Amino acid sequence: MKRSLQFSPYLILLLGFCLRLYHLGADSLWYDETVSLYLARSDPFELIRHTAGDIHPPLYYLLLSAWGRLAGFFEFAAAFFSLGFGVLLIALVYRITRNWYPARLIAPLAALFVALSPFNIWYSQEVRMYTLGATLGLLSVYFLRRLVARDKILTRDFFAYVLVTAAGIYSLYYFIFLLVFQWLWVILRTLSTLPTNSAIRNQKSEIPSLKSFFFSQLTVAFLYLCWLPIAFRQATDPPVPPWREFIDLPRVILESSSALAFGQSVDPNVFGIVALLFLVPIAIVIWREWRAPRPSLVGAHENQSAISNQQSAIHDSPSALFLLGYTFVPLGAIYLLSLWKPLYHVRYLFTYSPAFYILAAFTVVNLAAEFARARLRTTARRVYGLGAVLMLAALGFLALTGYSLYNFWENEQYQSDDLRGAVQYIAERWRPGDAVLVNAGYVYPALAYYFPESLPRERLTDYSSGSLTQPILLTTGSIGGGDHLGWGDPLSDFYPTTADETRAALERVLRDHPRVWMLRIYDTVVDPNGDIRAFFDQNSTLFDDRAFGGESQARVQGFMAHSTIAPEAARVADVPFADRVLLTHYQLREQDLERGSNLDVVLYWKLLQTVNHNYQVSLQLLDGRDNNLAQSDEMPLSDLLPMTRWNVGETYRQPMRLHIPTDVTPGGYRVIVKLYDPRSGEVIGPPIVELGQVQIHP
């Protein structure tokens, strides 16, 4: 038994590592994660400037930046940073629990609960600060207990507590709610240990005081002083539009209980009730602990060392109520503040979650000991019946945990917003002349991270004229938002605007850009009345619309102006195809190209009569012997707006792109276009239409 216990922490760590490694970095990053990497890839000074105008402190981003410069900024490497703290949390739970409790089974069981926890695995794979916050929180509570028990300043515990606590507040503002619990516990601890006997009361040296705790808080405040004005302004006058709704108490309880027990990849309305059933044994243990007789300090003044030993026995091992408070007092504080301004989200509970798993292990071991004692005084039938119930409960817990993990890894309902797929969809279809619009200005980090080219970015309302050859990213403001948004900083992601300003800017955009791609996500936050959607409905034609997976239901939409006129620079073609379709004009963007680059062509079509088939266009690169060296086939416009839905006599603009192979011999080549029926392969009208020649350079 001893040997197995010696090896158990390593096996638990290995299990936890493997579970966190599986599927790591496979899914797209969601919005918050792209913000993490956008900031981490920034200059440190720009990073700090940006976070000063946002809603999170900078330490996590600085650490991620340092990590990324060593390991890379791709999804797997970035998520591995969170995984590292997730595995470290398992080890800390084991080590700290072993220091707190003499029963040897509690520590490995607590570590096992953390290793298997879907809640922990979820955030160990997310490129955010939550595993860092939970790790620093556990260390803060651990060193605080040691510091207060010794009540000495300028010790190793004092400096350790101050550093990890300050680091926690610099990493996540919600860390402050853990300090609320710490203050409450220190005060209650002091009150509960004040002796009542006058003789003992005079022994001040042995009475626990607030001295070390008080000075530690002053030191933490001093370390935080440079950021405190920024944090205060962010809390009282946030520069972001409100996006959270108030969550009522029953839902908070169900979501929190479900997440702690089974993670976020299950229905909290069902699993929250199941999780509450698992809280019943915890309540029993707390009740028994509360009713149990405690060592008394009264009458022990004859022996001061006895007083000290009894105090140590009382306070060295955290009570079950302490662990419960560690988890739920911060949650309660968040809920109470949410009555003023919505702050609750289940993800923030993770910072305070380590104590829950220690409490669960403490409960299981205590109930197991009670069961063992019951065997000595209870009939065999009742003992075996109780054992069967406990075994079924354990199997049920493991089955539900496995179900949650399966959902997390495989169920599309719980996967991250597919911003990678959305941005790649835009990148593959973007052509010179197109504009990209983000209808929630602060989602641009997703395009900055996933778009293959650098995207110059500007606010939509500042738009005057844009490049027709380079991608341009326009970010909308918050329509009807308050003047405090972005604090008036022109570099802020957030800015207030009006419906009239937005419509005027969109008119300028459609004037210069025949097509506009819009990434829609969180758009109801900044456009609550749907003014931007209404503008496009009235002034453009929707030619592409694609939904992507994820909770926020991101979608990409393509809009084009109602009327299309070929520019003066376009060449006249006037080539009819079987008296059904007319190629009126075309444009060759560039005629001098390098190998590996793209040839961009714009075709202008007009229906001469209604067609019953959706023809396709083939753009080809031919050498002097008519050998086809490169080819691109597309349905004009899109599947959403094929030729069968075109209006007779109306001109339609079709941009096409042809990739030049890297192994093409430098020289001159012909560019041709064909129209054909994809069902039969039959070419419609003339076999080919010559668009001109291009010169390929090395």
Q: Tell me about the biggest sheet?
A: 6 strands, mixed
Number of domains: 3
Low-confidence stretches: 202-208, 295-315
Give the helix tally.
Answer: 24
Through-space gap between termini? 71 Å
Sheet/helix structural class: alpha/beta
What fraction strand? 15-25%
How confident is the prediction overall: mean pLDDT?
88
Q: What is the radius of gyration?
A: 33 Å
Helix amount: 40-55%
Q: What is the number of strand segments? A: 17
The neighbouring-strand order within the major sheet is 2-3-1-6-8-7
Which overall shape is indicated by the principal axes computed on the Cα atoms? elongated
Write structural notes for this entry.
It is built from 24 helices and 17 strands. Helix 5 runs antiparallel to helix 6 (106-116). With 698 residues, it is of the alpha/beta class. It folds into 3 domains: 2-414, no CATH class; 419-561, 3-Layer(aba) Sandwich (Rossmann fold), CATH 3.40.50; 571-697, Sandwich (Immunoglobulin-like). The chain is elongated.
Tell me the layout of helices and strands.
Blueprint lengths: L1 H20 L9 H10 L3 H9 L6 H13 L3 H26 L5 H11 L1 H7 L5 H21 L5 H16 L4 H18 L4 H4 L9 H13 L4 H9 L12 H14 L5 H24 L12 H12 L4 H19 L15 H21 L5 H31 L8 H11 L5 E4 L5 H7 L6 E3 L13 E3 L2 E2 L16 E2 L1 H14 L2 E6 L2 H4 L4 H9 E8 L7 E7 L9 E7 L3 E8 L3 E3 L3 E10 L8 E7 L5 E7 L16 E9 L7 E10 L12 E9 L1
Helix pairs in contact: 1-5, 1-6, 2-4, 2-21, 5-6, 5-7, 5-8, 6-18, 8-9, 9-12, 10-17, 14-15, 17-18
